[in-house]
Design brief:
With about 240 residues, the protein is α+β, with helices and mostly antiparallel strands. About 25% of the residues lie in helices and about 30% in strands. The chain is built from six helices and 13 strands. The strands form four sheets. The chain has a six-stranded mixed β-sheet with strand order 1-11-10-13-7-8. Strand 7 and strand 8 form a beta hairpin. The C terminus is likely disordered.
């Protein structure tokens, strides 16, 4: 009887784990949606620098727009979630993803001719909205968290209240866009904690996904041993 019960239980575990394997899997060389790399490069522009010459304006950034010789057109405003800023006369102008010089040119072109002959527009970055990182997968509180200053992978996961008890600590992926190309790299939180792997820096707009351990998830969801008795009627029917 015990042998039959054990065999049936093993079969259930096998089938359940097979179902688990259909879930999240680590990226590898066969991944087609992203470029899998050994070393994940930094984005082209970071918000850590104080020189905003090549800074790309983002949603919720606060700008000061000055038009030389037209003080009535000066505007202190915030970029909306779509990357637009609302200005007198011309309405919404798309500035998201543009440098201050590119945004100034776009506003000048909107004003040129109809409103001003040769508008000279200057944009000053008054406040940079803290960039965010998305932490997903087997963490206690998946969500979007601010990146303030220098943040590492361990700190990003800690922001999500740490890895869940079903996490596969050797299966943590960072997704990042560099030169308009989606990239991903695999990290081991276990090796980072033990000092055998460097703790990589996290940048705004990164996505961190912590993989799951299939067996741990099965034990959590079904708690086999405490509820072993509930399987007995099913086993007896075999």
């Amino acid at each position: 009887m015990f042998r039959r019960a054990f065999s049936a239980l093993a079969a259930i575990v096998t089938m359940s784990l097979a179902g688990c394997s259909g879930g999240w899997a680590p990226v590898d060389s066969s991944s087609t949606a992203v470029s899998v790399v050994q070393q994940l490069p930094a984005p082209d522009v970071t918000t850590d620098a104080q020189d905003f010459t090549n800074y790309q304006i983002g949603p919720m950034d606060e700008l000061v727009v000055d038009v030389f010789g037209a003080p009535d057109l000066k505007r202190d405003g915030q970029v909306d979630s779509a990357g637009n800023i609302s200005l007198p006369l011309v309405g919404n102008i798309s500035v998201g993803g543009k440098t201050p010089a590119e945004a100034s040119h776009a506003i000048a072109e909107a004003l040129r001719g109809k409103y001003l002959k040769d508008p000279q527009v200057t944009i000053t970055i008054a406040k940079v909205n803290p960039r965010t990182v998305t932490v997903d997968g087997a963490v206690s509180q998946p969500g979007v968290y601010p990146v303030t200053g220098r943040m590492t992978l361990q700190e990003a996961i800690a922001s999500a209240r740490g890895a869940a008890n079903v996490a596969n600590l050797d299966n943590v992926v960072i997704f990042r866009t560099v030169n308009n190309q989606k990239m991903a790299a695999l990290f081991s939180l276990r090796q980072i904690r033990s000092g055998h792997m460097n703790d990589p820096q996290i940048y705004g707009n990164d996505v961190v996904v912590v993989g799951e351990d299939a067996m741990r998830r099965f034990l959590r969801d079904f708690t086999i041993f405490p509820r072993f008795g509930s399987f007995v009627p099913f086993i007896n029917a075999l």
